[in-house]
Every structure is written in C-alpha cells, then in structure tokens.
Amino acid sequence: MKRTHVNADMSHQNGLAYKLELFVNSLKENGVLSTLRKISQRVSYRVKGIDFSTQNIYDLTRTGEYQEHGTALVSTSVDFLSQLLNDLEDTIGAKLNRELFVDYGSGKGAAIIHAKELGFKRAIGVEFAKELHEIAQRNIQKLNLKDVTSIYADATTYMLPSDISVIYFFNPFDEVVMKKVVENILAQKESFEGDVYVIYGNASCDVLNSYFTFLNHITYPSSATVDFFKV
Ligand SMILES: C[S@@+](CC[C@H](N)C(=O)[O-])C[C@H]1O[C@@H](n2cnc3c(N)ncnc32)[C@H](O)[C@@H]1O
User: Fold this and answer.
1) Is the residue at 56 inside a domain?
2) In angstroms, what is the span from residue 71 Cα to ligand 1's centroid?
3) Is there an atom of ligand 1 within 6 Å of 125 CB?
4) Distance, CA of 62 to CA of 148 (rounded, Å)
5) Cα–Cα distance measured from residue 33 to residue 153, given in angstroms and rounded to the nearest whole number
6) 35 vs 195, which has greater pLDDT?
7) CA 69 to ligand 1 center in whole angstroms
C-alpha cells in the first residue's frame, strides 16, 4: 500500500518532462489511436478554457478541521474513470446503476464531469479547498453541464443522498479523515435505495477493508491501482 502524501508538492506533474513521460507510456500501453484521442480531448478542453491541471493545496484556503490531512490535486482522466467503471462492472458481473456518482475530494471537478460524460444522471463532488471548488464550478459552467455539482465542504461533514450508487475516492486524504467519512457512510446505509459500490483509486490506507465488503484489487500498467468495495 502506498503512503499518503498529504500536502505533497505535485507541481512537477505540470512540467514538460512529466507530460512527455505520460505520452510515451500512453503510446506503449494504449497505442497510437487511444493516445491521439486523449490528446485531442485535452486540446478541446484547453480551447474551452477547462482547467484540470495538477495543483498543490498547502497554500489554498481549506475549510474544516482536517486541513493537514489532504493530498494534492491530481485530476482523474476520462479514460481512467471509464476503465475503472468497466472493471467494476466486470467484477460484479452486471451493469452499474448510473444514478448518482459522488466524489469525495473532487478538486477541479474532473471526475464528476467525466462521470456525467460516462452516463451518470447526476454527479456531486465534495471539495475542501475553496479555490479548487471555484475552478470546478467554472469548469462545469463552461461545459454547460446540468446535474453536476461541486460542494465546498470538508468530506467528514457531507451526508450522501439516498439515491447514491457509486462512491469515488482518488486517494484524497489519509486514514484519519477516511475513517470518519466511512463511518458516516455506514451510518446512512439503511437510507440507501439500492446497492452502493465504492471505487478507491491509488489506495493509501486500508480503512475501507474493515467496514465494506472487498470485491477486487487491480494494478494497472501505469502502476495506478484500484480497490472495489460494496457498502
Ligand atoms: C488526488 S485529488 C483528487 C481529485 C478528484 N477526485 C479527481 O479525481 O479528479 C484529492 C483532492 O481531495 C481534496 N481533499 C483533501 N482532503 C479533503 C477533505 N477533508 N475534504 C474534502 N476534500 C478534500 C484535495 O483538496 C484534492 O483536491
């Protein structure tokens, strides 16, 4: 299990060398067509003024008690989220109910925006850094997306709507915050209308294993990992 890099400096991810490395890896792992598709989507976002760039959080305005427990903003790509959802469907052997997707620690809104693009009726993100939440709101507005919402709040204070179907964590915080969030989710379990699945990308703590039903673990060629659970 990887260590949680709370408050880490991730700014190198915006540099040319890192982007070149991603390009070469993508060519190796996904081939030319998929790599070109990714580049064209990035260009289209750039043209529309969408900002999903990596950002450190230690100089941002963070709400709540757990300001020193969060990781830097690294956005989920649409290809990665699509892969995760497909792999979850393969794991459960059924199509997912794409009613409501909630992202804890949603940054600039990449995962909630992609969730909507990938067929969820609604997507909600909870983000404790004010500046990131405001960029998420602008991204949603520029793409003119309905039923995609960024909420400015600490994850431990958020209560899930009863129609929740998929919960997403992309290594957002350490085990202190994760434990409180997971206890809140379990306390609401009786109110959930259907099955609820959890996608934990790049897991850095094993809190979820003690509370939810573990379904599967996958390590991808990029070295990214995912753990799937059922609430
Ligand atoms: C690795 S990024 C993931 C971004 C987004 N989920 C995505 O996939 O594009 C982690 C995010 O969690 C946020 N975060 C950290 N601790 C938080 C907390 N206690 N409550 C809400 N958001 C938090 C950080 O500000 C950061 O934007």
Assistant:
1) no
2) 6
3) no
4) 22
5) 39
6) 195
7) 10
Q: What range does the domain containing 85 cover?
A: 67-230
* Digit-coded pLDDT (tens) for 9-40: 777 777 888 788 888 888 888 788 888 888 88
| 91-115: pLDDT as tens digits | 999 999 999 999 999 999 999 999 9
CA–CA separation, 143 vs 117, rounded Å?
Answer: 11
Phi then psi dihedrals of residue 99, to 5 deg: -85, -60
**CATH code, domain with 211:** 3.40.50.150
Q: Ligand 1, atom 13: nearest CA belongs to which residue?
A: 105
Q: Is there an atom of ligand 1 within 6 Å of 111 CB?
A: yes
What is the count of structural domains for the chain?
1
Ligand 1 site-directed mutation target among 6, 104, 225, most atoms within 8 Å of CB? 104
Exposure pattern of 141-168 as b/e (b: 16+ CB <10 Å)?
eebebeebbbbbebbbebebeeebbbbb
